[in-house]
Structures are given as structure tokens and as C-alpha cells.
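Deliverable D4.2, example record:
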Amino acid sequence: MTELLLNEAAYHKVIQEEIPAARRFVWISTADLKDLHVEAGKGKYIPFVAVLADLVAGGIGVRLIHAKEPGPRFRKDFDRFPELIHSDNFERVLCPRMHAKLIIIDGRKAYIGSANLTGAGIGSKSPLRRNFEAGVFTTDSKMVSELCEFYDEFWIGNSCLKCGHRKSCPDPIC
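Output generated by the structure prediction step:
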């Protein structure tokens, strides 16, 4: 199954429905990483990092790749969740060349699209204030497998070793 997700449809399907239901792991890559809140009941919103912290506390592995330093509000929210700082289930890498917006869930489902991990990108912003975004959610095993391989090859450092920006990289993998 492959489904086109436009605008806030990605938020509803991926952020609200699929990520909280992960059973083994969630791998995320984004260029931009800012304050992102999600609905947690009628009129109540929580930082998305709270969702990630709940996953990590429940034994779910979370990997996060982002291209630039997160905004100050994200960092402040992040620091409130020690499970993200101290758990082996949470890993993070900063790579200035990463521009893929990708979320892989349990190696069986994937979202790939234009939306960054920001409120205006894939967050809960009003349709009148959010970015215009387009993406695809898929359970196609061949596509998900190729996306997992792309992500994992990056994660283990294969891109890092021959990167032309290695000398100026703030966080080399290896």
C-alpha cells in the first residue's frame, strides 16, 4: 500500500497514528528540527519529544538525523526528558548534508516527503499557518527495504568516510 499525504494528512497519519504505535524502532531524518507539538487530547498539546521519550522508555529504539542545530525551544523541551539523554535507545547524529525527510517505522512502514520535523512542516499547526507539504506513506516492502538500507548505510558512517565536508563537520560519525 502506498498513499499520497498532502499537507496536514502527514501529521495525522505519521505523527499521530503510526509513530506512537511503533513496536521496535523509529528512524527519522530531517533537514530542519524545531519546536514541534502534537495533540494529546482535546485542546492539549505536548512536545513531540515527549512522544519520542515515551517510545524510548518503552524499549523502542529511536534514531534521529538532522542537518542543523535544533532551535532553542526544541532544545529546551528535549532537555526535559532524561530518557532521551541517558538511554541507549535514543541516538542522534547531526549531518549538514542530510536533507532527506524520512521516517521509517519498524522496518515495515515509511514516510518520505518534503516536510521537516517542525511545527509548520509535519506538526500540528493550523492549516492557515502550516507549510504546503507533499509526501508518500508506504508499506511496500521493496521501497521500505531500500529506504532502510539508505538510512543504515548513512548511520554506520559509509557516507562520512568519503564526505567532502568532513573537515568542517560538527559531528562526524566516524
